[in-house]
Amino acid sequence: QFPCGRRLPCDIYWHGVSFHDNDIFSGQVNKFPGMTEMVRKITLSRAVRTMQYLFPLEYNFYPRSWILPDESSFFEKEIRMMKDRDPSWKPTFIVKPDGGCQGDGIYLIKDPSDIRLTGGLQSRPAVVQEYICKPLLVDKLKFDIRLYVLLKSLEPLEIYIAKDGLSRFCTEPYQEPTLKNLHQVFMHLTNYSLNIHSGNFIHSDNANTGSKRTFSSILCRLSSKGVDVKKVWSDIISLVIKTIIALTPELKVYYQSDIPAGKPGPTCFQILGFDILLMKNLKPMLLEVNANPSMRIEHEKELSPGVFENVPSPVDEEVKVAVIRDTLRLVDPQKQKKKDVHAVCFLQLKKKKKKNFPNYSIESYKCHVIKYGLFLCCRSQTLEHVSGAKEELLDAGPPARLAHDVSTTTEAALPSPCLKQVFPKYAKQFNYLRLVDRVAALFIRFLGVKGTTKLGPTGFRTFIRNCKLSNSNFSMASVDILYIDITRRWNSMGIDHKESGMCWQAFVEAFFFLAQKKYKSLPLPEQVASLIDFCEYHLAVLDEKRLVCGRG
Ligand code: ADP
Fold first, then answer.
1. pLDDT tens across 498-531, in order?
2. How many helices and strands (H and E) does the chain possess?
3. Distance in Å, CA 240 to ligand 1 centroid
4. Distance 112 CA to ligand 1 centre (A)
5. Among the listed residues 214, 173, 36, 65, the one whose alpha carbon sits nearest the alpha carbon of residue 126
6. Which atom, in ligand 1's list, is nearest to the CA of 104?
7. Atom 27 of ligand 1, nearest CA residue
8. Atom 23, ligand 1: which residue's CA is nearest?
9. Which CATH number fits domain 433-550: 1.10.3720.10, 1.10.357.10, 1.10.10.60, 1.10.238.10?
10. What pTM does this model have?
11. Residue 511 in contact with residue 53, Cβ under 8 Å?
12. What are the pLDDT digits (tens) for 343-369?
């Protein structure tokens, strides 16, 4: 921690909340620029909706959602039409304020007219979503799953999933929503922060009981009842990969604006919290993604009225410590340096053992190596500031052969990894979904001035011209009208008014419009893919020409 400011660069920066430090030029940061914005309820819903538009069957793991207030009348109209078509349909909806967390401001409704306008939707936009009425119950209680996912790199895409997660339970037996029970949060909302206030909340000291349990304990139970838990896991992995594929295009737009390509900057990684609900038929549904999941491994215990104490929470500890440990293992920037430091520690400890600690056991030696290894590897320069460390290092001599032995011992001393790579491991299965990433590459190319996330009218014109998209049927005047129409509409509903110009989502809309216009007879995904191919081809030709001119 650097309360008075940091003077030296680091290998790993661990930010508490979000990416906010503009003077980091190297190393790795544990947050991506723009991730907090990306996983807000509205932005996430929009990103998933783009993918649902292209691949409806692959993205049916996210409840149908509408954005308020922009789509209020559309929401009302659509529900009215669906009810007219099927009068027996009695849906329930859940309204969730944008940017809210811990169940804050969430409520259930039976009819679009029940949306509460008090408090001003304008000032606090929200997402209204179809409520999943038939969740899987355990002990008659609704529960959700918190799964930790490491996005290790955006380019190339690398995703890891923790083998175990948390299951967070409601504290009142579940009943399908009726007008009478809609308000019972302990029955319908699984948030720990809400249920902790219920008299029925049970703090658990093992992983299989209580209001917070490990997900593996639930899977064990399901397995003993004959459920195919491998299938549940593979559906969850697929949900996670598809969700990240939906987030990456806009994340790349944010990334280039904070860390422009070709300029010195850090690389990023991030631990995300995925909230997933299993339906009665065991299909996983995505509820939300958390950019800053709680890593607390303690909970508050009320000793006497008003007197609280933090006590360890074994369930949290079992899941979360492994996630942090493996993240550090995976992003370890200088494995070789670490090996060297381990060897140095080993030599030092051997000396100490001889002189001061004749009974120094191999176990305590391993602990020291792990402690020193992680600590010292955080920044080799900091060694100079650890009193005496430099001298000790110098007189330790070259560590060559021991390095290997010691690092093997250290790896062996750590528990087996809990983070499992799922991408690129399963890339072949999912790469066809990464169409919008290529649209993002086009958008970024024409953004022009680094540091922006919005495309100006000249940038849009250049995009059309360089990709040879205007012709006698689509004049440059029509291009300008398209730009103005779409940009004005998106900016009137956008939350971000800091910059003027065409935002990413507006560009996607314009691109899909152009694709539909150019390839009328094809289905949408093929229209979009064909237009991407067409643009990429013309840009490659242009680059080639420029290269030849440059050489000349
Ligand atoms: P928050 O960020 O405030 O926790 P969530 O989207 O996670 O908001 O919703 C809070 C809780 O509401 C979830 O943990 C879940 O129990 C319940 N919930 C949210 N969306 C749905 C839904 N579409 N269907 C059923 N339950 C839901």
1. 678 999 999 999 999 999 999 999 999 999 999 9
2. 18, 17
3. 17
4. 18
5. 65
6. 3
7. 131
8. 131
9. 1.10.238.10
10. 0.85
11. no
12. 444 445 444 444 444 444 444 434 444
